[in-house]
Give the backbone structure.
Amino acid sequence: MNPGLTRFLSSLAAWVFGLATTVLLISFWGRAVVVDTDELADNLAPLSESEEVTGRFSDWMTTQLTDSGVPSDPAEEAATLSLFTPEVKQALAALVGEVVHAAAEPAPEGTAVDMASIFTPTVPAVTASLASQGIPAPETEVASIVAGLDPLVIREPGAAPMVGSASPTARRLGIASVLAGAALVVFGALYVLVSGNWVRAMRTLSTRFAVGALTFALLLKLGSWVLDPGGGRAPVSESLSQLADSKWLIPAFIGLAASMGALFFWVIRSTKPVAANPPTV
């Protein structure tokens, strides 16, 4: 084969192999995160303390109280105070988890979250918050307001799941993993074929794959720390940090396995035969 063509094919195969390695690691890790809804719900739990969630709950409670005849200022103060109670915090965290699981449910009729059952345990705490503001609201009245909460629709009938193994996201990531794996095999084989030394070529590919996987795992851990170095500094940052940290062992184990393969080819690397010394006259 022409040496110039050989170098071109070798460079092309190595470049595509590296690109396919990156796509495989990202898609493999991403699908593992999307499919594990239990861990995803835990990772997103800190969002229950974000302004987006607490603000909506406070606005809803303020509206309910003012509609019941409570002046707006005391109603707003009581709603704000209730946010600091353990019962309300637990209910908001449970709400985030239920939203994630409802988003993953593939039921054709759609999914919704039962708001009344989630916030029923908060009735005594909300009643106490009202009493601290001098608002004479019986616990039965507060319970009636909570029981009248409409279900929160997460998926309309016929809509695809947003997360989970049946979601389009998981399916696309799975397809990307398969295509990237096929590219690894095809262009890895091409690299070995044109290299002229299959042991050295396999050693090079295994080393590249191992370094790529271990680097990706390290970047996930580093990204987790960068997003939330204080550990719970901000709800959104904490959730993103936990998402980056989740499943980092997958690329780490892949990298370690590839390292064992690279070590194997280093051990059995071929050595050029030493030419016999010419006889002396």
